[in-house]
Design brief:
Strand content: 35-45%
Largest sheet: 6 strands, mixed
Low-confidence stretches: none
Structural class: alpha+beta
Oligomer: single chain
Number of strands: 8
Length: 153
């Protein structure tokens, strides 16, 4: 093997090691370096009125995410998926939630009309970070009630 070939082989080996080490470090980084959701609280509501939500989240770095919201409804033997919404959002540290945050906004452009019952919401974000690497953030809301009009919460 010529000196040039050996030098190129050594360089490619070193580059490969650097790429593997960088990928391993990136894989180990927690999603909270970009995005952390501390809580999702949903208020009781009445049929026909989207529930009001309060979300405590922190966006530390810009990223793109695919998200899925699943509304779980109480059945006879547990909860089942009643409605799901999917989308993609470009998040930045400047991104704010609306002051009048509701389930309709959370699932936009889809709407999840809720019948009388007991519910909770699961939200999953697949964060696209560092050149295509993905990180997951999941959160589950509190259980909330939807009642018919005229009936207390």
């Amino acid at each position: 093997m010529s000196k040039t070939s050996a030098l190129i082989a050594d360089w490619l080996t070193a580059l490969g090691v650097v790429i593997v080490v960088a990928a391993a470090i990136a894989w180990l980084l927690p999603p909270s370096l970009w995005f952390k959701v501390n809580s999702v609280n949903v208020s009781n509501s009445v049929v026909g009125v989207p529930p009001v939500m309060v979300v405590d989240r922190v966006i530390s770095r810009a990223f793109l995410a695919d998200w899925t919201v699943t509304v779980m409804r109480k059945g006879q033997n547990g909860f089942y998926s009643d409605c799901a919404a999917h989308g993609q959002t470009d998040y930045t540290p400047e991104s704010e939630l609306p002051t009048d945050l509701t389930l309709d906004w959370w699932t936009w452009p889809d709407k999840c009309p809720l019948k009388e019952g007991e519910y909770y919401i699961r939200t999953l974000w697949d964060l696209r970070v560092l050149g295509g690497l993905t990180k997951e953030e999941r959160v589950t809301s509190n259980i909330f009630q939807v009642t018919t009009k005229g009936v207390g919460p």
